[in-house]
Amino acid sequence: MTDTNTPAEGTKQSLMQTARAWGENPFTPTLLATTIAAQHMRPFQAFPMLFPPVLLFTSYANLQGFTTDSAGISAAWSGLYLLLAGRRKQPFMKKWGARGIVRGVTMGLCFANLVGGGLAYTLGKREEEEDDE
Prior knowledge:
Structural class: mainly alpha
Strand content: under 5%
Protein name: Altered inheritance of mitochondria protein 19
Number of strands: 0
Radius of gyration: 18 Å
Number of domains: 1
Shape: elongated
InterPro entries: AIM19
Helix content: over 70%
Number of helices: 7
Keywords: Membrane, Transmembrane, Transmembrane helix
Transmembrane segments: 63-84, 105-124
């Protein structure tokens, strides 16, 4: 009976590798677009509803092979939404209702997309760069 575990299989990913994988994943901007739409659809707010189509486009671009560029766009728009959502004040007791929890999840996803997408964009390679090597 031989041991088939190699050292590479047993190692855990570092935090930086996990964040980069999060930024390259096409599902995370879609999830963020869903939570933003759920929060601002009723009552309809036009300005925040500009974010879901852009985030859905980044998921589409990611699936078409533009992982680095879509990670950068997703990170930029997530950071912008986080900045704008952070400016709104919310009373303490409303933070624990359904809307407050969705808002907290949305802002958490924005931060995760900002960090992960920023790392994926910064450390990623485009197809033109890979052809040169």
